[in-house]
Structure formats: C-alpha cells, structure tokens
Amino acid sequence: MAFRVSAVQYHLHTISSFGEFAAECEHYIKTAGEYGAEFILFPEFLTTQLMSIGGEDGEALGIEDLPQFTDRYLEMFSGYARKYAVHIIGGTHVLRRSGKLYNVAHLFYPDGRIAEQAKLHITPAEVEGWNMGAGEELQVFQTDHGTIAMLTCYDIEFPEIVRMARAKGADVIFCPSCTDDRHGFHRVRYTSHARAIENQVYVVLTGTVGSLPTVDLMRANFGQAAIITPNDIPFPPQGLLAEGEINNDMIITADLDLELLYRVREHGSVTTWRDRRTDLYTDWT
C-alpha cells in the first residue's frame, strides 16, 4: 500500500533546441529513478521553456506556438515512462482545441497510456496575458498504486474541486504549479495543506524555479516542492514528508503509505472526511 514519489523543482533557463529540453527532462527522470521513484511530478508550464528556443526571426516564441511541440512532447514523455517503468506527470503543456488554448496536465503510464486533465480554474493573468481557456470536467485516474487526481496550481485553491476528487476516490492529489512571487507561492502552498487536512489525502506539489528572460510571463519564478500529509499522529507534525529548498534546482522524494490514510480516516485524532455535515452543505458523490 506504499509507493515512492519524486517531485522536480525544474530549473527554467534559455535553451536552443527540443533535444536540449528532452535531455534535461531525462536527467531528472534518471535521478528520480536512482531513488526508486514510481511517480515523478514535473511543474506547471514546463514546456514554456521551449518558447525560449525562438523562431527564425530570433525572437522568443509566443504561447500560441507551443501546441506545435505537442506530438514531440507526448512521444518524449511516453517513451521515458516506458523506458524507465515509471508514472510521469509531465507538468502541463498548452494544447489548442477548437481554436482555444488550454493548459493541460498529462499522466504518462509505464505501459504507454496517456491521460490528461485540463486546468479547471484560470488565473486573471492567464486569461489576460494568454487568453487561456478553462477545462470542463474533473477526472480521477486509476493506477497500479491507487487512485490519483491532477489539479494544477490555482485549482488547489478551490476546496470544492478537491472535495470532488476525493469523493471520486482520489487518495493522492498531484499539483503541478508555477508561481512568480512569494504571494502566489504561499497561496498554493497553504491551500495544499488545507486540502490535505480537509480531505485526508496526500498532496504532491512542485513548481518552477529559474527564469526565461525572453518569454513573457515567465521571467520570474518562485518555487518549492513539497510532499504534504494530513496533520495527525501517524504523520510528521507539520504535515510534511519532504520539502525542497526554495528556488533551487533539485528533486525531493518520499514514500506515500495509503494504509495510513485509511487508518486516520477511521480512527484519527480527527476524522474530517467522515464528519462532514452533508445535512448543512453540498456534498459530491
């Protein structure tokens, strides 16, 4: 009932080719593999690094250009998931559908399957700066190690959507994030702890570090990975299995024991999932 997860504090910097991007991603995957990770989480807007390659005019690509890399992105991470026999949450990548751009998290299974979850809540900056569209449906995903959900950055700040994920059976929420300052970072970090406590789930969180000086909206990043638990006696007192060093290029790793979740839901110091007052407020099934 236990499995190992790694979260990558991915360092964004200017690159010159897709091959360079692929080599850097493989470096992190190999590193996590040396620690025996069975799930590897990359951050939100991971592929914006590809915009720094630039076009024929020497200028950085725009967000509308990112979908041209979709086939190579899918092939790359799917290949790595099969090669290294791991589940990879490949951060998020921007897709174009029906003339609209969407910020989409992807789960790459070791057997080659690919699942996706579009970001459901879009920040004002994403709307105004990139005209990003919102996803329409929450899904959870069955794996050999249990049921997971992928909720991207701003999504974790909405308690209703995480409650829905838990009601659908998710025990682990993977949250790829990208925040540019301390305020945004702490909004995501604090609400991740709240969601873990409210729903008695694990939250695996990471964000981008470094900068892309030529790419609009990606010139500043403030990030720190964390593997977050409910706050109860079987878990660390601060609800933290592991956390990275702020703004450093690194990976964190920890084991998630689902049996501990099931135990605290039934016999914990508090039983927040079982004790919800569905006679007073809306519940999801």
Automatic annotation (TrEMBL):
CDD domains to which the protein is assigned, alphabetical: nitrilase_Rim1_like
Pfam families assigned: CN_hydrolase (PF00795)
Classification via InterPro entries: C-N_Hydrolase, C-N_Hydrolase_sf, UPF0012_CS
Record-linked PROSITE patterns: CN_HYDROLASE (PS50263), UPF0012 (PS01227)
SUPFAM superfamilies: Carbon-nitrogen hydrolase
Positions of the CN hydrolase domain: 3-258
Recorded family membership: Belongs to the carbon-nitrogen hydrolase superfamily. NIT1/NIT2 family.
Protein name per its UniProtKB record: Amidohydrolase
Organism in which the protein naturally occurs: Paenibacillus silagei
Phylogenetic placement of the source organism: Bacteria, Bacillati, Bacillota, Bacilli, Bacillales
